[in-house]
């Protein structure tokens, strides 16, 4: 497929990106001059607000560069946090002068100069040079028709072949030449490392609170609607049995008492079973023997044939084991309910400080967050522990869902 490379969508986007780079670099150079001038003028009163405005302008220029890199250079760069400032002019000036995102964009405008030069030189040499060499026979024909020189086929043919080779190599060459540009965009145009960590912790705290409240509401509902109702029925049955036993001189009364006691006994056993299920929902007892044993038992009990593989050289933290167990339970339930699969597989491995859980099935595919399969809840639960979930489920299958969690927290 090398011949089709020049017309591929990625090649076209990257070439368009390179063509836009000189304009963005020019805007960045103008902005750098303004920043330098503002720094020089900080000795005067006018220099401080001018520098604050320059930093805010850098934030805007960084946003434009980030959007361009995402759309045309294929760089995944998360957006930094919004600009926040307290009320009042002084607070706004202080927030602007200390805006980390703005200053990182200033540094990006300075460091991208050699990276942009490399990308433009590669595009000009490969695409431009290739087109120029490929057109050598045409130039030779024009020269011959104008009686400027005889046809130069002995020279034009190798030049044309070299031009074709350059055009075939151009997409890969430009892609490689854009590597510094992509690296700088990922490093300097996204959120700062500390900001990313703070945002992730805030989201994890909110998700943990919501998950805890949902668990408490579920337990409360189960206790109120199930166990509590059964206990009320049990108490009433025992009270009625007591009344019947007090007048047990008649055989009919004694029979009624026996029936009531039998009913109370069954209700008591069902209540104990419900309480046991609630306790298992809080912490599965199978995890007492370790995650590998728990998942092996869970897979063996699957209604459809399921294969299990494990490579756990190190035991995860208890909370990680619980999350992995619940994820596996939910994913296997989805396989049975929604996929139409005939076989499934569960793999769990511990490597480089990460626990990787992978559930596969040969079903119809189409699994996605927000389709009623509970994957959104799983993603939220996994994110509370700085984990991630990846869903690959094309139409027609197969479905592969991967969950990554830290081994320890």
UniProtKB/TrEMBL annotation:
Q: Indicate the transmembrane segments per the record.
A: 15-34, 40-58, 113-135, 155-178
Q: Which UniProt keywords apply?
A: ATP-binding, Kinase, Membrane, Nucleotide-binding, Phosphoprotein, Transferase, Transmembrane, Transmembrane helix, Two-component regulatory system
SUPFAM superfamilies in UniProt: ATPase domain of HSP90 chaperone/DNA topoisomerase II/histidine kinase
Keyword Nucleotide-binding assigned: yes
| Alphabetized SMART domains for the sequence | HATPase_c
Q: Could you say which EC number(s) this protein's record lists?
A: 2.7.13.3
Which Pfam families does the UniProt entry name for this protein?
HATPase_c (PF02518), HisKA_3 (PF07730), Sensor (PF13796)
Catalytic reaction(s) noted: ATP + protein L-histidine = ADP + protein N-phospho-L-histidine
Start and end residues of each Histidine kinase/HSP90-like ATPase domain: 319-409
Q: Specify the protein name.
A: histidine kinase
Where is the organism placed in the taxonomic lineage, from the top?
Answer: Bacteria, Bacillati, Actinomycetota, Actinomycetes, Streptosporangiales
